[in-house]
Amino acid sequence: MEKAKPTKLALFASGNGTNVQRICEYFRGNERIRPAVLFCDRPRAFVLERARQLGLPTVPIDKAKLSDPEFMLKALHAHEATHIVLAGFLTKIPGFLVQAYSGHIYNVHPALLPKFGGKGMYGMHVHEAVVAAREKESGITIHLVDEHYDQGKILFQASCPVAPEDTASDLAEKIHRLEQEHFPLVLERFIGATPFEQNTQTL
Fold first, then answer.
1. Catalytic residue among 77, 79, 104, 109
2. 158-194: b or e for each residue (b if 16 or more CB lie within 10 Å)?
């Protein structure tokens, strides 16, 4: 019996890359799900160094390349990517990628959607808004990506308390711990249930 081909993840990141590292370490040795390539839109992002240390191939991109269907789809196909994982990626995914990988693009948002989502709501901007609103809790939302900012189907949420004395930086640390704990596990759970073959005709 022929061995099933592994699911291969294209990781997209713009910054430090702790989620990329955590995902790669979690799936190390996994024959079913494998991180295959990193797409990075910031030439000085530390995630590129993490990828080098992890032995993860990288594809540097800018807005022009991200917007180019021929370049992006060719690069994804070259690495046999079946799913896209946004692990701290700060640029909106273009519609052609959403269509080509419909139901196969995952994002982690640092708040409890639908609160504190939408354009401009990323990173510390989210935590500053949560603290300013005097919310009593925040958390993470792992969701599918569609054509609209932070409006894709919600797959999982985890919450944490926001203390009255918490700063945005304090909250960021709590959210980071939730991401590190849950993101790889949720990816493993849902990616295994969404084989890519059903969408290959759109590529």
1. 109
2. bebebeeebebeebbebbeebbeebbbebbbebbeee
Rounded distance between C-alpha atoms, residue 65 and residue 45, angstroms: 17
Output the pLDDT for position 58.
98
**Amino acid at residue number 192:** G
Q: Work out the burial of residue 101: count CB atoms within 10 Å of its CB; fewer than 13 is exposed, 13-18 middle, 19 or more buried.
A: buried
Separation between Cα atoms, residue 177 and residue 182, nearest integer Å: 9
Neighbouring residues of 133: CB distance < 8 A, sequence distance ≥ 6: none
Note the pTM of the prediction, 2 decimals. Answer: 0.91
What's the chain's length in residues? 203
**CA–CA distances in Å: residue 168 to residues 117, 139, 156:** 16, 13, 23
Instruction: Give catalytic status of residue 109 as yes or no.
Output: yes
**Sign of the torsion angle spanned by Cα atoms 42, 93, 195, 176:** positive
Cβ atoms of 77 and 111 within 8 Å: the answer is: no
3-state SS, 107-175, equals EEECCCCCCCCCCCCCCHHHHHHHHHCCCCEEEEEEEECCCCCCCCCEEEEEEEECCCCCCHHHHHHHH
* % of the chain exceeding 70 in pLDDT: 93
Return the pLDDT at 199.
38
Number of Cβ atoms within 10 Å of the Cβ of 21:
21
